Amino acid sequence: MILCDKKDLVLRKTIPILLIIFSLSWLVYFMGYFFPKVVLPLNVEIFSFVGISLAIFLGFCNNAAYDRFKEGNKQLANLMSHSRSLTFQILNLIKEDSNFTIQDKRNGVNIIVAFCYTLNIELKNKNNWNDLTPLIAEDIYNNLRQKEFKSAYLLNELTNWTNEQFINGRIDFIIRARMNHNIEELSKVLGACERIVDTKIPFVYFVLLHRTIYIFCFLLPFGLLGSMSWFMPFFVFFISYTFISLDAVVAEIAEPFKDRKSDLLLDQICNDISSSLNEISKILPQ
């Protein structure tokens, strides 16, 4: 499964500031060459200590951000697997009778698909609820629009639907327990995704990181002027690209449920789930 679009290069977002730093480096070089008394070179050893400290801090923020991205990826995989498992149980373990046909089973599967799309809409803070109308009954849809926690409401409806089959004798308590287990796992996915969205990396970390990186990169030409001559601007550009690009990557992967090309492809995953369950039940909309 492809989770990011490789065409979206970090360089496209960082090139403006990198060009400014590159131009500043050449300016410092020529000023130092033609007016050596005007430009005051800095001790390069200071940048060595600051660079090491900055790399450690940047690594810490990167690990924290990637843990969030990896957790989101894991939860979306769980969403797909438990949705399929619950669909298998609905289609194969619930007994049919004169009052409960294969179409009723498919209606239950539709609630699973609606839950996936609802989770997607809530995580991205969108408002395209009309996409759910082909999947769920009108009364459920109307109640859904009035709820604040819509994904949780659909899981509750799915639990009630399962209990109804148990009350009518279409499944025994063992099968109901197995189905409820998958519903509980979907609830865990919901809770984990909500935690990723609601509990962000402290903003002060990003402020400190941005300021330190930019100050370091803008002062670096003065530290390397006396030791690298004309090669200095290129080396400063490379070092700046490394730090600023990592900073941009950290800012993006820290929030994996947005619509940027580097984020998790929630729309694609939900469509994959819908297509998969459609293939199983032979009726779900594409």
UniProtKB/TrEMBL annotation:
<feature type="transmembrane region" description="Helical">
    <location>
        <begin position="230"/>
        <end position="251"/>
    </location>
</feature>
<protein>
    <submittedName>
        <fullName>Uncharacterized protein</fullName>
    </submittedName>
</protein>
<keyword id="KW-0813">Transport</keyword>
<dbReference type="InterPro" id="IPR044669">
    <property type="entry name" value="YneE/VCCN1/2-like"/>
</dbReference>
<keyword id="KW-0472">Membrane</keyword>
<feature type="transmembrane region" description="Helical">
    <location>
        <begin position="15"/>
        <end position="34"/>
    </location>
</feature>
<feature type="transmembrane region" description="Helical">
    <location>
        <begin position="203"/>
        <end position="224"/>
    </location>
</feature>
<comment type="similarity">
    <text>Belongs to the anion channel-forming bestrophin (TC 1.A.46) family.</text>
</comment>
<dbReference type="GO" id="GO:0005886">
    <property type="term" value="C:plasma membrane"/>
</dbReference>
<keyword id="KW-1003">Cell membrane</keyword>
<keyword id="KW-0812">Transmembrane</keyword>
<feature type="transmembrane region" description="Helical">
    <location>
        <begin position="46"/>
        <end position="66"/>
    </location>
</feature>
<dbReference type="GO" id="GO:0005254">
    <property type="term" value="F:chloride channel activity"/>
</dbReference>
<keyword id="KW-1133">Transmembrane helix</keyword>
<dbReference type="Pfam" id="PF25539">
    <property type="entry name" value="Bestrophin_2"/>
</dbReference>
<keyword id="KW-0406">Ion transport</keyword>
